[in-house]
Amino acid sequence: MKHIVSLIIVILLFSCKTDKEKQIETWENKIEERKSEKTFPKLEPNRYNVAFLIMDGTFNTELTAPFDIFQHTIFRENIKAMNVFTVANTDAAITSFEGMRILPDYNYLKDELPKIDILVVPSAEHHLDSDLNDTAMIDFVKKIDKEALFVTSHCDGAFVLAKAGLLDNSVSTTFPSDIDFMREMFPELDIRKNVLFVHDGKYITSAGGAKSFEAALYLCEHLYGKEITKSLAGGLVIDWDIETVDHLIIKK
């Protein structure tokens, strides 16, 4: 009898332990599932969707300058503000040229993307060489261009637009010291010097650097008018006056 009771106790203990282990395993699985769930940004309706194309080596200023300007539109009343977000070819964090780690909002290789109204291509370290051989990235830019209202570049981001064929019939510019190289690489293009940005149709190309602010503010003035844009600039302590900025408008 004692042996039977002992056996029952052992079985019960083993059963309880197994159930406990199963419960722990279930919770661990749930935790891992939650970790793997991707959180997408909340995009408010009736706004322009503005995507920033980022990758390893993206330069901080060409990304953050227009991002700051466009994001601040949500604090202005009675305008169609902007939803700003980043897209990349990975779910992992990218590392900017200056070492900032940024987690992309969307992976354009596998995520379902919202309709993109404005595509911003900041400059990156390898936009003059290996990035131009990234066919998936170039194809993404071509695809977005078909429906986007505007495609903008800063600094050497213009090389990406040129490689995608977007600038074939447009006047453009890029980082001042890279203009001659861009002309050599794309001899059929009309690339201008001595301007901070060029607006030709749906394309706005910028010299980049700190002047990325000016190109972003220009687009805001084009969309929202002078007063709204001056208030956006003032919020970032920028003295904005389009008449004092060397630029070229070919076609609005």
Structural description of this entry:
There is one protein chain. By secondary structure, the chain is α/β, with parallel strands linked by helices. The chain folds into 2 domains: 1-37; 48-251, Rossmann fold, CATH 3.40.50.880. It has helices at 2-36, 60-71, 135-145, 157-163, 179-185, 212-224, 226-235; strands spanning 48-53, 82-88, 94-95, 101-102, 106-107, 118-121, 150-154, 171-172, 190-191, 197-200, 203-206, 247-251. The protein has an 8-stranded mixed β-sheet, sandwiched between helices. The protein has a two-stranded antiparallel sheet with strand order 3-4. Strands 8-9 form a two-stranded parallel ribbon. α2 (60-71) packs parallel to α6 (212-224) and α6 runs antiparallel to α7 (226-235). The protein is globular. The chain starts with a helix and ends with a strand.
In the sheet with the most strands, the strands line up as 5-2-1-6-7-11-10-12
CATH architecture type of the largest domain: 3-Layer(aba) Sandwich
What best-fitting shape do the alpha-carbon axes yield? globular
- Proportion of residues in extended strands: 15-25%
By CATH, the superfamily of the largest domain comes out as: Class I glutamine amidotransferase (GATase) domain
N to C succession of SSEs: HEHEEEEEHEHEHEEEHHE
Number of strands: 12
Can you give the mean pLDDT?
91
Taking all Cα atoms into account, the compactness measure Rg is 25 Å
Number of domains: 2
What is the fold-level CATH name, i.e. the topology of the largest domain? Rossmann fold
Stretches with pLDDT under 50, minimum 5 residues: none
Give the CATH class of the largest domain: Alpha Beta
Biggest pleated-sheet summary: 8 strands, mixed
Report the end-to-end length measured between terminal Cα atoms.
96 Å
Number of helices: 7
What is the chains' assembly state?
single chain
